[in-house]
Amino acid sequence: MTELMNKIICSSLTHYVNENQKQWSLYYKMVVFAYNTCPSSRLKVSPFYLLHGMEANQPLDNKLMSGEKETFNLTKSLKQLQIIRETIPGIIKTNNQSRKSYTIKNTKTLTSNQDRRY
């Protein structure tokens, strides 16, 4: 999982540092924040939400909601988070089964050719 996250972050950084490769550290925090706040296509929630139980406040959100005071309902948020955390293992299991069946379906059987010399 960590290798996949690192691959995604490195790939994202290449869009910003193609010209000057020494400036990657200027964009690193923004890219990691974008990764952590982007909902997963499988789980439908962001890693930030899974860790903290609420979505991250982004700078634009602060500007748009400067006059509105939205109350945070801890009990409701914890119930939603618990439901999501209970459904995630099932989603992962289903996804793994579909990947396994896809792999089995698309794997060609290899025949041994004993006469062939390498």
TrEMBL record:
InterPro entries: RNaseH-like_sf (IPR012337), RNaseH_sf (IPR036397). One of its GO terms (molecular function) is nucleic acid binding. This is Uncharacterized protein. It comes from Macrosiphum euphorbiae.
